[in-house]
Amino acid sequence: LEKLHWDTALSYTTEDGIYIRGYDLNELVGSVPFPSVLYLLYTGTLPQPYQARLIEAVMVASIDHGAGTPSVLAARTAASGGAGLGPAAAAGLLTLGKYHGAAVQGAMEAIYRVADLAAPGTSQLADAAAQVVKEWRNAGKRISGFGHRQHKDRDPRLDRLMAIAREEGVHGQYLNAANELESALHRTLNRPLPINIDGGMAAILLEIDFPIGLSNALFMVSRMTGILAHAYEEIDQMTPMRRIDPLDHGYCGPEPRSIHKHDEGMDHD
Amino acid sequence: LEKLHWDTALSYTTEDGIYIRGYDLNELVGSVPFPSVLYLLYTGTLPQPYQARLIEAVMVASIDHGAGTPSVLAARTAASGGAGLGPAAAAGLLTLGKYHGAAVQGAMEAIYRVADLAAPGTSQLADAAAQVVKEWRNAGKRISGFGHRQHKDRDPRLDRLMAIAREEGVHGQYLNAANELESALHRTLNRPLPINIDGGMAAILLEIDFPIGLSNALFMVSRMTGILAHAYEEIDQMTPMRRIDPLDHGYCGPEPRSIHKHDEGMDHD
Amino acid sequence: LEKLHWDTALSYTTEDGIYIRGYDLNELVGSVPFPSVLYLLYTGTLPQPYQARLIEAVMVASIDHGAGTPSVLAARTAASGGAGLGPAAAAGLLTLGKYHGAAVQGAMEAIYRVADLAAPGTSQLADAAAQVVKEWRNAGKRISGFGHRQHKDRDPRLDRLMAIAREEGVHGQYLNAANELESALHRTLNRPLPINIDGGMAAILLEIDFPIGLSNALFMVSRMTGILAHAYEEIDQMTPMRRIDPLDHGYCGPEPRSIHKHDEGMDHD
Amino acid sequence: LEKLHWDTALSYTTEDGIYIRGYDLNELVGSVPFPSVLYLLYTGTLPQPYQARLIEAVMVASIDHGAGTPSVLAARTAASGGAGLGPAAAAGLLTLGKYHGAAVQGAMEAIYRVADLAAPGTSQLADAAAQVVKEWRNAGKRISGFGHRQHKDRDPRLDRLMAIAREEGVHGQYLNAANELESALHRTLNRPLPINIDGGMAAILLEIDFPIGLSNALFMVSRMTGILAHAYEEIDQMTPMRRIDPLDHGYCGPEPRSIHKHDEGMDHD
Fold this sequence. Notes:
The structure is a homotetramer.
Chain A: E1 6-8, E2 11-13, E3 18-20, E4 23-24, H1 25-28, H2 34-43, H3 49-61, H4 70-81, H5 85-95, H6 103-117, H7 125-138, H8 156-167, H9 173-189, H10 197-207, H11 215-237, E5 249-251
Antiparallel strand pairs in A: 2-3, 3-4
């Protein structure tokens, strides 16, 4: 028989424990936030505090987008046919395809290319952005991360993420490159195509040294949380084999409330 | 056409934002930890601080278990055939079945039954545990959460989780019920079958009022993080169509290290 | 390293060929119908001619059920999010759960139990059917294969399958047991609950010695054909991210036509 | 609410029946072979007899390839973790990616391009083949369908399929184009890269007017048959959570046998 030995750089187990990128998992448990351990697994390094706060913010911002997204509808449809929780969630995960959830990675590629073309510390970002717009158009591709179909004007999550980035002192080349891309697109298309939540997340993930190829993974982990909540509600509360209308649905949960009211159990800030 | 209106209690979107169980997602972003937002989605309530710390600890403890688990092997095998990141992870997710990952839920059911049978505040837990062992045996089921195939003696994660529970002042009926189950199993089987990591997580999740039906969802979100890391490494680093040995694999990542050393970037405690 | 050798009874490959249950696949190609090779793989034996005709009839009868089934809607939804053909079809496959597609297996279990309880060649089937109705009701289960939500009166496929069974001289204990179950259900519920297409397929599959545990597999192979056609149409023809209405859809394909008209290319009978 | 009406060209149901591309499914049941109904669903037309025989031959030739393929290993691994039959098969289906099962479609694209470049009825195929080899190399792609990793010399299924094509009088431009591609590859690479089973199937599928975009669908339906057989054997016969060696496995099924021996039940030819 052929020899098949292979190695992973991610993790291993012993009789005594589980080791993640060299750290004993037990040291991480109770000490390091979950999104920071994700960052460790995906990059090989524990995040700096500003990176830890931003990765957590991006994960929270991606956790759910209501009951009408294709991934939730697919998961609910599978559950409605009798799929268990995991298989229903898998149907939802498979729906996170190139049109649904992959925009952050596309935007990271374009923003990274702009920053990469411009010599660091120079004012060449505008020229680089114009060139990238041209390159993408010549290849017949649109630059994702700019414009949004539902939140017409400006996704409110974008302002929040940018405010957190400022609080953490993050204002580097990738955020600048994203702004230059927005301007270059405006000039080329002769109409504004403002940066959207995907473009904003893309710039922030680049600022915190998150690998482009794993941005979809980050999104999938986060959004699986919401998909699983919807799949479980479908299994637990809804009639099997019902026809699931993708538009005609409402909300019957708790009233609007705020974490800043003192009647909430957790003191968050 | 039939009317198909339906309602969800989880979340909704407006032109202005996304609302999770009544909270504006923007308020949560940057303020509330990711595992606490998961807790909110799954229970309808933001966790108390002790609940927030324990849910995060359980999620970190579940994030990965090395390259030899069935879910990782299935994800790597799919990636090796040419599946993209999401489909490969879906193959891994589908592998988290009744023998792999579902033990926490099984243990929660047994522990909950013990606590439910005993009148609160009484010393009837031992009798209840004996009865539950009998009920499960009569139904031809084993009680999951006790014993472990790899970590023969005592899974080190268990001690860590229990220490955190003590730090947070958690020592309620479910932890007691789990101990009584361990004793009842020992008496019945005439050999020790010590509580394992699944049983420990089960007791802790019950202590923090986490719904039994969603414990697998919690595990899936956490473990998807690891599965996606392995799927990406397979796609990015490995030869397509290789034969993946389930045992003959090693580790080529960073050397053993500690978060307590001062050369690490993050000051965690 | 542990020894892991294992054996399969299904198939193997050599430098010279592929062997299915002992037959050189090359001998089967061009000589044996596809459904008969499926039968060989699933039972270990090539079918007799009457078994071959009936397995093929059941597979054709299951190939598609229009655009409004949950499995097709899930596959189209996944495709609409950007999933490729295989992942979209996988989302559809996962939707074939206990409420959608599994009724044949449930019916086989009940019919088999009736035939098994009655001594062969006796007139005890009626008593056995009454007992099985009682057993299922005591266990809180409904007997699947009787009644249908869409085809109110009688699914026309049922008459066709039964006619083919008669043509092939099949009128054994399982068809009789199914009829007795129908009568017993009528008496117990005091209203007719006529055998439906799932119940009819169940009886026929038992008559041709098809294993109960693989009836869902047979259905999945057949229905995957339709699911893949729908997924491909969605990918090839439809707008990405469209909202897919589960009821408000029509048909824009070829006009009604018949295989018996002479303008068709194939001379089938 | 937005209007969402949409149309499919594939099929529809009425109170009376199911219609596939305009044909009453009941007419097809018992009269038309399963692979011919697949052809109808995928192309809109019932096949001519030669097309019907060749589509069936291709489907039988693809039904299984032993226990060591990535798709079977993934399905068995998922089953081993506790996945049910459908979810385990879905894990296998997801493994049929670009390196595993997609070669036929790639070969069809190249062969079609050769035939398309050459004026019909001329002897320009050799030039066209040389050009296509150059185009593919310039684009950094290899032409699939030529060479095979396991069956070093010549896959025996290829000869069988070609013999059936000859029996059916099929010897058109696509088979010629495939031969010319083989010659052009030999000249360019200076070593023989003989057409393999994928290339042969590709040429045959083009000869019978099968749509390129649905060749993977054809393969998936066929191979799902084998994947489901393996998943069921794993669920039914094997120990849960076993480590599945991808190489060290054997065969414990029926002895070698032939359909031409008179002890077999079915008279096939």
